[in-house]
Amino acid sequence: MAEAPILLEAREVTVRFGGLTAVDAVSMQLRAGELVGIIGPNGAGKTTFFNAVSGVVAPTSGHLFAEGVDLTGRGPHFYAAHGVARTFQTPRVMGDMTLTDNVRFGMEFAGRRREPIAGLRSEHDILDMLGLASLANRSASEVTPSQQRLLEIGMALGTRPRVLLLDEVAAGLTEAEVDAMARRIRKLRDEHGLTVVWIEHAVTTLLKYIERVLVLHQGRKIADGTPGEVVRNAEVVEAYLGDEMVEME
């Protein structure tokens, strides 16, 4: 069987801020239909890497491609137009606008130039899938933090992406909320055809839900494999997981 096409690729991406190397020659190939996690301690370079692969920061060196198109050095609008969308650690929703208008803003951000996601053609479809349809006319400032995280995912879905990058969407959520969030993320992949990359600082949370994991440490990629392979990787144990590794086994 032929391999699924590569939707997003980072080749030897390095990001430096002055004398600090935040991301050090990290490469990644993301194929259609994958559900990938990125883990690492604080300061490992996870969010900076996300910023690079979504156009928020330009890499100091290396290249980024979406379906073969060179995105290196282009801004977030260009990435969105080529099917890459993301969320942020702190949800960037517009509190004085309704949930429907927030999702509509996402649609307008990408200019409706892309084909709609299967089953998610309208603002209502997106809010319904996220369990927010009953709150559609509420202001974003009136809903809970967990609902704001879901809403930001809805805004990202409004851009009609093929690749969805999620930055610590489980942070601050209860165990039940994390479980519900993870089910929706899997549904986006399984029923709506999205490819997902999910950063999470809470290792045991993330490894329960994803199928492939990259580990960053001090800006470098030190492992890339299944959760089972990664939790048995000696370099990962030494660099990051420690006692959490024992819990996962």
Concise structural overview:
Helix content is 34%, strand content 25%.
List strands and helices in order, with pairings.
Blueprint: E1 6-17, E2 20-31, E3 35-39, H1 46-53, E4 61-66, E5 69-70, H2 76-81, E6 84-86, H3 99-109, H4 123-129, H5 145-158, E7 163-167, H6 175-190, E8 195-199, H7 203-207, E9 212-217, E10 220-225, H8 227-230, H9 234-241, H10 243-248
Parallel strand pairs: 3-8, 3-9, 6-7, 7-8
Antiparallel strand pairs: 1-2, 1-4, 4-5, 9-10
Helix pairs in contact: 3-4, 3-5
Quickly list its features.
alpha/beta, six-stranded mixed sheet, 249 residues, disordered C terminus
Structural summary, described in words:
The protein is of the alpha/beta class. Helix content is 34%, strand content 25%. The protein has a single domain, classed as Rossmann fold (3-Layer(aba) Sandwich). The protein has 10 helices and 10 strands. The strands form 2 sheets. It has a 6-stranded mixed β-sheet with strand order 6-7-8-3-9-10, sandwiched between helices. Helix 3 crosses helix 4 and helix 3 (99-109) packs parallel to helix 5 (145-158). The longest helix is centred in the C-terminal third of the chain and has 16 residues, at 175-190. 44% of the residues are buried. Mean pLDDT is 90; it is low at 245-249.
- The strand count comes to 10
Number of domain modules? 1
Distance between the termini: 32 Å
CATH domain class name: Alpha Beta
In the CATH hierarchy, the third-tier topology is known as Rossmann fold
Question: Rg from C-alpha positions?
Answer: 18 Å
Shape: globular
Going by helix content, strand content and strand pairing, the class is: alpha/beta
CATH architectural label: 3-Layer(aba) Sandwich
Which stretches are poorly predicted, pLDDT < 50 over at least 5 residues?
245-249
Counting H and I runs of at least 4 residues, what is the number of helices?
10
Strand content: 15-25%
Percentage of helical residues? 25-40%
SSE topology string: EEEHEEHEHHHEHEHEEHHH
* Major sheet details: 6 strands, mixed
Mean pLDDT: 90
- Main β-sheet, spatial strand arrangement: 6-7-8-3-9-10
Tell me the name of the CATH homologous superfamily.
Answer: P-loop containing nucleotide triphosphate hydrolases
